[in-house]
TrEMBL record, chain A:
Keywords: Signal. Transmembrane segments: none annotated. Residues 38-300 form the ABC-type glycine betaine transport system substrate-binding domain. This is Glycine/betaine ABC transporter substrate-binding protein. InterPro entries: ABC_Gly_betaine_transp_sub-bd. Residues 1-19 form the signal peptide. It comes from the Bacteria. It comes from Streptomyces daghestanicus.
UniProtKB/TrEMBL annotation, chain B:
Residues 27-206 form the ABC transmembrane type-1 domain. It comes from Streptomyces griseoviridis. GO terms for cellular component: plasma membrane. This is ABC transporter permease. InterPro entries: ABC_transp_perm/SBD (IPR051204), MetI-like (IPR000515), MetI-like_sf (IPR035906). Belongs to the binding-protein-dependent transport system permease family. Keywords: Membrane, Transmembrane, Transmembrane helix, Transport. It holds the Pfam family BPD_transp_1. Coiled coil: none annotated.
Length: 305, 221
């Protein structure tokens, strides 16, 4: 119960802080301002964000900039405030998720449209740099056995599930059940009615375990989850962008980064695609390598450091 | 909106009163999980506590095991067990039973130990066998304390059984977990209220059980 209560408190706090978007007055979360000339690269509290922050930071260092890291800060509710007041200069973001945070009702029809909408909604001190093709978003993913049974391949799309959905148990986080970008939308837009729904976590260890053990045959898994490689899950294609956009994109505090730094980060984005990111994530999360080493090695092999 | 408004909105919504996600169904599931866990914990804790308390041996070992078990985080244990064993009711029962055994075990042991030795010696002197001494002399005197151990175990189970929802089972935790993820705080408050009420009902039941089962001569006046 203590754990649940703690989660409740955390979520309530997060819920509160997301409301006061413009309040920068006497926020106790205000850290000290970054030292002049030093780029502070921050990351959210999950493995991929740390890896991406290391990629950005090392790319900036390679151009001779002074960089310090602030890893594992927390969720977007926290980091967005720290970006606004300049405590953090660079943060890896996901364009569609950021837009949903800034404006929950925004339509997401194209990657360019999403970035334009984000820029319009962002605080004046912040901007988005160029998006990478790498996407980490929700997906409808089947396990190896199910893929084999129903002949689903990596070329199959969500719509191909129409005939087999009633035989499959789907798993996802509890909010997946009530979201438009979830069960509701899958039913209304694709006519998919699944046998039943199991409430798990948001693409975390429970969902991975349930899909691996065939407790569910199909689940919402993030597209750069290394378990996809390890367990030979099949991610179904999403040609209609049902799950929106989640391109890895650097969010930047304008005053803190020189043009040289901007160019360096754009160069990283240009070379980073979903497969590359998935491979790098696998090195960190499956092979337990130090994300900083993984970042340095990739930058070297890509000719960016 | 304050917490009372949330609770009012939750309980006022007719949709929350029927179906597989309705309050009666979730309440029933919660009571089932709790009773099963309490039963299993009592099955382990009571005999061991009675025997060790009667013989007076193993007290230190018990205290050690009980303290260690209390230090285990139920929630972390649950996720670990599910990932290792898969989904189902058993992985939920393990952390709940581990949570509930220490209070039952330790209070039962202490309850039997603290029985006045005079009547026990008298019973032994009259030729009663050890088993009868335990059940007919020590147990009735120790009963109020034993019940208090069961009571605190039951209340801990009722409040902790909410974690079953985190691994896709039902129970009142379903409202709390779903509500948090769906940012539907009416559900969270409603679920938490129901858990609190159930804990109070558990308290009342144990009070009633104490009135019925404890001999008037032993009951504190």
């Amino acid at each position: 119960m203590a754990a649940v209560a703690l989660m409740a408190a955390a979520a309530l706090l997060a819920g509160c802080s997301s409301g006061d978007g413009e309040d920068t007055g006497d926020n106790p979360l205000d850290g000290e301002k970054a030292e002049a000339g030093t780029v502070v690269v921050g990351s959210n509290n999950f493995a991929e964000s740390t890896l991406l922050a290391d990629l950005y930071g090392e790319a900036l260092k390679a151009k001779g900039l002074k960089v310090t890291y602030k890893h594992n800060i927390g969720s977007r509710e926290t980091t967005y405030g720290l970006m606004k007041n300049g405590s953090v200069t660079v943060l890896p973001e996901y364009n569609g998720s950021l837009l949903a945070y800034l404006d929950a009702d925004a339509e997401q029809t194209s990657a360019e449209g999403v970035n334009a909408a984000v820029k319009a909604k962002l605080d004046k001190s912040l901007t988005l740099l160029e998006s990478s093709p790498a996407e980490d978003k929700d997906s409808v993913t089947v396990n190896a056995a199910t893929a084999k049974k129903y002949r689903l391949t990596s070329d199959s799309t969500i719509a191909d599930l129409k005939d087999v959905a009633p035989e499959l148990v789907i798993g996802g986080s509890p909010e997946f059940q009530t979201r438009q970008q979830g069960l509701k939308g899958l039913e209304s837009e694709y006519g998919l009615k699944f046998k039943s729904f199991k409430a798990l976590d948001a693409g975390g260890p429970l969902t991975q375990a349930a899909l691996t053990r065939n407790t569910v045959q199909i689940a919402d898994i993030f597209t750069t989850d290394p378990t996809i490689v390890k367990e030979k899950f099949v991610v179904l294609k999403d040609p209609d962008n049902f799950f929106g956009f989640a391109n890895v994109t650097p969010l930047v505090h304008k005053d803190g980064l020189s043009q040289e730094g901007v160019d360096a980060l754009n160069a990283v984005s240009a070379k980073l695609d979903t497969e590359t990111l998935l491979a790098l994530d696998a090195q960190v999360q499956l092979d337990k390598k130090d994300p900083l080493d993984v970042a340095k090695n990739w930058l070297k092999s890509a000719g960016l450091a | 909106m304050n917490v009372l408004d949330f609770a009012g909105a939750f309980f006022g919504d007719g949709a929350h009163w029927h179906g597989y996600d309705g309050i009666p169904q979730r309440l029933l599931e919660h009571v089932q999980y709790s009773l099963l866990a309490l039963g299993l914990a009592a099955l382990i804790g009571l005999p061991v506590g009675l025997v060790t308390g009667h013989t007076g041996r193993g007290g230190n070992a018990l205290a050690l095991v009980a303290t260690a078990a209390r230090a285990l985080p139920s929630f972390g244990l649950l996720v670990l067990i599910v990932i290792m064993m898969g989904f189902g009711l058993l992985p939920v029962m393990i952390p709940l039973v581990i949570l509930a055994v220490p209070p039952i075990l330790v209070t039962t042991y202490e309850a039997v130990r603290s029985v006045d030795p005079a009547p026990v010696d008298a019973a032994r002197g009259m030729g009663m066998r050890e088993g009868r001494i335990l059940l007919q002399v020590e147990l009735p005197v120790a009963l109020p304390l034993i019940l208090s151990g069961l009571r605190s175990a039951a209340i801990q189970i009722v409040s902790t059984a909410t974690i079953a929802a985190y691994v896709s089972l039902g129970g009142l935790g379903r409202y709390i977990v779903d509500g948090l993820y769906q940012r539907d705080y009416e559900k969270v408050v409603g679920g938490a209220t129901l858990v609190a009420v159930l804990a109070l009902v558990t308290l009342a039941l144990f009070w009633a059980a104490g009135r019925l089962a404890v001999s008037p001569g032993v009951r504190r006046r």
